[in-house]
Request: fold
Amino acid sequence: MSQAIDEAALRRLFLDAHTHNKWQEKEVPDGVLHELIDTLKLGPTSANCSPGRFVFVKSADAKGRLKPHLSAGNRDKTMQAPVCAIIAYDMEFYEHLPKLFPHTDAKSWFTGNADKIKETAFRNGTLQGAYLIIAARALGLDCGPMSGFDNAGVDEAFFAGTTYKSNFLCNLGYGDPSGVRPRSPRFSFDEMAKIA
Reply:
């Protein structure tokens, strides 16, 4: 039977976790990024479609290509962050379903159905982006997820010639607590949920 994780883990993942805006000058090793992908890819997606695609912007050259597409409020903190993950989704994810969901012809569910492709790619790619945040926290990284960028510009700079579309960005590294803002209010249970 499944058991709840301990309080320390719950605090690391949710209760004490904050969005980070300032970063320590501490590198994120490539091995940690590989471990991050190997962890998040195990989160569920519909029909195991796994449309999430990720670029870890780490080098000075890559940051230089990303910088002009960031909103003014996101530029400095992203350039300071050790890594900025571009969370994207593949609009041709269904081409891989014979490998990822081999027990039935799931590819035929999507072929020629543009609306279903877009909806499934976006929904499940977003899920995988959320898994990235939780997995990163579990592996000891801090996160700064954000919108505030030019999707078309990022797609041209990083995904030209592919079927990938950017969704959101997430700075990764070891946060500087001095840049953490007080937690914003959240809804109560009754304001956001009900038991039917």
Summary: The chain has one domain: 18-176. The chain has a mean pLDDT of 97. Residues 114-138 form the longest helix (25 residues). The beta strands are 52-57, 83-90, 142-146, 164-173.
